[in-house]
UniProtKB/TrEMBL annotation:
Keywords: Oxidoreductase
Enzyme Commission number(s): 1.1.1.47
InterPro entries per UniProt: NAD(P)-bd_dom_sf, Sc_DH/Rdtase_CS, SDR_fam
Annotated GO MF terms: glucose 1-dehydrogenase [NAD(P)+] activity
Enzyme class name: oxidoreductase
Name of protein: Glucose 1-dehydrogenase
SUPFAM superfamilies in the cross-refs: NAD(P)-binding Rossmann-fold domains
């Protein structure tokens, strides 16, 4: 696989899975743009990681749940780099808690970031990719979007929405030469799971056939494959990377 000369936009690229995906593309020669919401220090660290790998990246701060921000971010990238070959929709948030304790604002922020954010970027990028009759879009979903998680109802709904969105958009854009797929991670070692106690972590690991959480790199390897020519006949797919975890959870 080779991404020399390719421009890759990764939302939520400042840390966690997004950081791993950014590094993997850079190792394969790609030029990476990372978007992030708040954490300037994390974004700087990702840029440094990329520099250390001998690569080139820029960061753009802003909220993907805003249509106007997303549109102007994509226009700026197109003006500066001339194209976007690969879009990775990775930005995401979660909130754990009983459904009855959730507020309307939680619905707006979780669905707004996780699902509307994917609509926002795709809506601006698709027109450009259709004009070029090429491009690859990869959405980072979650196993909970397929099987649902107790105490993560809104998060599960947002990821289930991403899965259907991916299947439908992949069909619609296939005749224009654009592929759309989703990666559905299980439990990955990132800040998102830092709230688990040692005991809770061990209990969860015991339920995973591979007996460990995944690493960002596990997601990044599949993401680069799905963005590459090696997967040129794969579209509209939701692919699980979870160490065997949800096989019997449906
Ligand atoms: P993380 O919290 O470490 O990183 C999230 C990233 O998203 C950060 O860069 C943050 O700046 C960005 N972000 C959040 N809201 C944003 C917004 N409104 N606009 C722009 N950027 C925003 O999380 P992670 O674990 O690396 O998760 C990355 C993706 O993978 C998410 O979509 C998440 O739902 C998904 N996922 C994670 C796991 C897991 O176990 N960690 C499992 C399944 C799916």
């Amino acid at each position: 696989m080779n991404f020399n000369g390719k421009v890759i936009l990764i939302t939520g690229g400042s840390r966690g899975i997004g950081n791993s995906i950014a590094k993997e593309f850079v190792k394969l020669g790609g030029t990476v743009i990372i978007n992030y919401r708040h954490n300037d220090a994390a974004a700087k660290q990702t840029l440094k990681d990329i520099e250390d790998l001998g690569g080139y990246a820029v960061s753009i701060k802003g909220d993907v749940s805003s249509y106007s921000f997303t549109k102007s971010m994509i226009n700026d990238i197109l003006n500066k780099f001339g194209k976007i070959d690969v879009l990775i929709n990775n930005a995401g948030i979660s909130k754990i808690g009983l459904f009855i304790d959730m507020h309307e604002g939680d619905f707006d922020s979780i669905i707004g970031t996780n699902l509307k954010g994917v609509f926002n970027t795709c809506h601006s990028v698709a027109k450009h990719m259709i004009d070029r009759r090429q491009g690859s879009i990869i959405n980072i979903s979650s196993i909970w979007g397929e099987v649902g998680a107790s105490c993560e109802v809104l998060y599960s709904a947002s990821k289930g929405g991403i899965n259907s969105f991916t299947k439908a958009l992949g069909k619609e854009l296939a005749p224009s030469g654009i592929r759309v797929n989703a990666v559905q991670p299980g439990i990955i070692n990132t800040e998102m799971n830092k709230w688990l106690t040692k005991e809770e972590k061990e209990e969860l690991e015991g339920e995973i056939p591979m007996m460990r959480f995944g690493e960002g790199e596990d997601i990044a390897k599949l993401t680069t494959f799905l963005a590459s020519e090696d997967s040129k006949y794969i579209t509209s797919q939701i692919i699980t990377v979870d160490g065997g975890y949800i096989k019997d959870k449906n």
